[in-house]
Every structure is written in C-alpha cells, then in structure tokens.
Amino acid sequence: MAHHLHTKKAMRQTVKRNRRNRTTKSKMKTAIKQFMAADTAEGKASAMKEAQRMIDRAAKKNVIHDNAAAHRKSQLARAYNSFVTSHT
Prior knowledge:
single chain; mainly alpha; Methane Monooxygenase Hydroxylase, Chain G, domain 1; 3 helices; elongated
C-alpha cells in the first residue's frame, strides 16, 4: 500500500483513467460487433460508419494507437467490400 500522498493520488488517477479507457474500448468493440452482425448492405454501411467513428474516437483519446485504428478501419472496409460483392 502506498504511503505518500502523491502516490495515493496517482493510484486514484490510474483507476479513473482505467475506467474511462475501458468504457471507450468497450463502446468501440460493441460497434464493431454490431457491424459484423448486420445482415444487409445498408445496415452494414451505417454500422461501419458508427464503428469507424468509435475507432477514431478511441484513437483520439489515445486508448488505441493511431496505426491500430487505421488497421481496424481497413479491416472493416475489407469486410464490407467483400460482403457487398458477395451479396450482389
């Protein structure tokens, strides 16, 4: 257990940040799962837009790395394009 006041404060800040980051990451993952679960092209398009928004928000808040965000968005685009081409 910490004995110094500044260490106790740092621990409180860590808990707060951890909770905030977990919330942001959870929203991002939920949006991605909703994209994967969509079964129509229009549904996938709107879900992809929302998922990309959440990914960008997580990257902006430094919850995930910028390159990780780009990678995830690229994966979404590839999944969307393959879905559209296979269902036309």
